[in-house]
Amino acid sequence: MQPSIGHSCGVFGVYAPNQPVANLAYLGLFALQHRGQESAGIAVSDGQTITVIKDMGLVSQVFDERKLASLSGHIAIGHNRYSTTGSSSWQNAQPVYGSVGDEGFALGHNGNLTNTADLAASLGMLPGFVPPKSAVDSTTDSALVAELISRAWPVERRSDGRELEIALEAVLPTLEGGFSFVLMDDSRLIGARDPHGFWPLVIGRLEGGGWVLASESAALDLVGAHYVRDVQPGEMVVIDATGLRREVRWAEPEPKLCLFEFVYFSRPDTRLYGHTVHTARQRMGESLAKQAPVDADMVMPVPESGIPAAQGFARASGIPYGDGLVKNRYVGRTFIQPSQKMRGAGVRMKLNPLPENIEGKRLVVVDDSIVRGTTTRQVVKMLREAGAAEIHFRVSSPPYRWPCFYGMDTGQRSALLAADLSVGEIRDYLDVDSLAYLEIDRLTAATGADAESFCTACLTGDYPVAIPDADAKMLLEPIRRERDTPSPIDAQ
């Protein structure tokens, strides 16, 4: 369990005539619920009209059979949100809907743009310059992209209906940062990924005919789709009645998948770079046991994300594996909670120690990462109170020292525990008997993929894309406030 990293979102798209695409999108989002729990939404096209239903909450809270039955069509996209740019509110739930005349499109975005300020300024959308007919109805960078698409839309209607494709070919090269998009108009499904491929996006083929786009391969399994391939970094793919019709390389790829997809974000049953995440996490634990051995009576995970690494540590060390904490499975990931107060309450609700397994024992406690450290400290306190004789904390990733600007929401660098503290100082703060982090070379080796194909900015400070001078999370918030305030002319 890692309560302090927020991932931006999960996206899903399906093109499947004569199949219940809304239900398939629901299942896909259900499989991707771990990637965002603030809001959920589905957009469906029947060839003439795009209908969007979205709301705050989990997928199962937003949708029921009645709502899904109202979404009939042959194309659908879905979105689970965790906010990175823009506040957590209904207006900022996705998919984002945009319109140009009588034509419409919908967009779902996983990631975060780094040039939001420049894009907003180019559109005259910074405070004091709100255009009266802007299509932006939220304060996210995703809605900003929708506005860019609307303005790049061809003036003349095309006989082949490729307006959205043409607009995207103009807009995508202007975007910087991390993004995996699923988009749709009335007759096609489109996927696109930034040139570094910070966030995954895969293509699947439905057994009964049809195509799927998803943030993770595990979502394909739930809807009965077979993995075809990844959308490549810097690529746009277009799916319509003829199948996977276009594969457009709009930028040269420089793969830099977020390393934390292997460490924490992705489901254990997802495959990345051809390797199963669960197996990679077990190898992380094995490598950690060799790097930082310790005499102990039991290896235990901080559930659930620490489980595979703890299994690997136990296997490599020969120390018995056991459970020391019970997780309440009806409480969501605590990192999703938008405030520290709520995160703290979530930890107390989520985990409870098993004193009979803990009392008098020397414990190796394994977790995937430590970000702010407040939750880890609470866990250690619970184990001490349950009678642990010793606590040796092992982390299956290096110290998290730098904020992410491409799609994780970790706040300012000053909030990161390891930003200015040594491992020894962190050990003392957590009140553990020993502390060790997995070295980065060992971590990348455990994934089975090329070490150069990952973004490690949060661990090393080496940012592949230039980062903004200031935090852009709330950059567009004044736009909504100004639009919601009547102008003197409107008031007359």
TrEMBL record:
MF (Gene Ontology): amidophosphoribosyltransferase activity
Documented EC number(s): 2.4.2.14
Classification via CDD domains: GPATase_N (cd00715), PRTases_typeI (cd06223)
Segments forming a coiled coil: none
Alphabetized InterPro entries for the sequence: GATase_2_dom, Ntn_hydrolases_N, PRTase-like, PRTase_dom, PurF, PurF_N
Pathway named in the protein's UniProt entry: Purine metabolism; IMP biosynthesis via de novo pathway; N(1)-(5-phospho-D-ribosyl)glycinamide from 5-phospho-alpha-D-ribose 1-diphosphate: step 1/2
Keywords assigned: Glutamine amidotransferase, Glycosyltransferase, Purine biosynthesis, Transferase
Family in the record: In the C-terminal section; belongs to the purine/pyrimidine phosphoribosyltransferase family.
Protein name: amidophosphoribosyltransferase
Organism: freshwater metagenome
Lineage: unclassified sequences, metagenomes, ecological metagenomes
